[in-house]
């Protein structure tokens, strides 16, 4: 008898029977409602409390003045506005802002910047130029910078390009000379003042050089004794 014939074949394995599936656990409507409420409360806390507090805290540490609205105060410490929002300034001894179709009212806002054929824009430009012709003694031969007679896209922009501010210097100086209650400020003094308030773009050649007229006027008020 050979060795191979002495080895018996392996016994067949018994089939493995799958255990019966456990019954799926069902959740009641109350449990679903409770989970929804918990998720909603967590989302409200995260987006309405944690995130604003975190962002505000970082902003306060980085620059508290900007975080609190870029508030501007006069020499006496009285809050007179924000460096981000222009004001309606028409006094001849101050530098003027860009005109506004909403009279610098932050609660009104502006829909879209008016186009060149918009009747409202034409009326505003004519009104602005007519006022300058009377208060500034401008003649038809003068050329006014576009930024001085046209509103900004937001109607609230307090910034002007330097040429639109420098052109106002003779008027401002003359107004301080004609008013006996004000300290006279010469053209040279005003030119130096404006140049000190010129802000260049953070990245050269990217952006526009500008002057914040509201901040400039606050400094001017201290010079003329107002």
Shape: elongated
Estimate the mean pLDDT confidence.
81
- How much of the sequence is in beta strands? 5-15%
Low-confidence stretches: none
Structural class computed from helices and strand pairing: mainly alpha
End-to-end separation in angstroms reads 129 Å
Helix content bin: 40-55%
**SSE arrangement, N to C:** HHHEEHHEHHHEEH
Oligomer, anyone? single chain
DSSP strand tally: 5
Radius of gyration: 36 Å
With strands numbered from the N-terminus, the spatial order across the biggest sheet is 3-5-4
Q: Total number of helical segments?
A: 9
Main sheet overview: 3 strands, antiparallel
Number of domains: 2
General description of the model:
The chain is mainly α. The chain is about 45% helix and about 5% strand. It has two domains: about 35-70; about 85-225, no CATH class. The chain has helices spanning about 5, 30-60, 65, 120-135, 145-150, 160-165, 170-180, 185-195, 215-225, and strands at about 70-75, 80, 160, 200, 210. Strands 3-5-4 form a three-stranded antiparallel sheet. A two-stranded antiparallel sheet has the order 1-2. It has nine helices and five strands.
């Amino acid at each position: 008898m050979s060795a191979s014939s002495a080895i018996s074949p392996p016994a067949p394995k018994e089939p493995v029977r799958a255990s019966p599936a456990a019954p799926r656990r069902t959740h009641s409507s109350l449990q679903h409602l409770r989970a929804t409420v918990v998720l909603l409360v967590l989302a409200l806390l995260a987006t309405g409390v944690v995130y604003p507090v975190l962002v505000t805290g970082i902003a306060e540490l980085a620059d508290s003045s900007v975080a609190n609205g870029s508030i501007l105060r006069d020499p006496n410490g009285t809050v007179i506005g924000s460096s981000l929002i222009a004001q309606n300034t028409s006094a001849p001894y101050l530098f003027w802002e860009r005109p506004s179709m909403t009279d610098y009212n932050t609660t009104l806002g502006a829909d879209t910047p008016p186009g060149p054929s918009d009747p409202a824009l034409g009326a505003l430009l004519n009104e602005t130029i007519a006022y300058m012709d009377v208060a500034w003694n401008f003649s038809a031969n003068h050329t006014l910078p576009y930024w001085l007679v046209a509103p900004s896209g937001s109607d609230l922009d307090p910034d002007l390009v330097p040429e639109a501010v420098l052109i106002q210097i003779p008027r401002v100086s003359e107004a301080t000379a004609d008013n006996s209650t004000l300290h006279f400020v010469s053209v040279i003094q005003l030119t130096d003042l404006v140049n000190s308030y010129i802000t260049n773009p953070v990245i050269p050649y990217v952006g526009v050089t500008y002057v914040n007229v509201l901040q400039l006027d606050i400094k001017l008020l201290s010079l003329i004794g107002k």
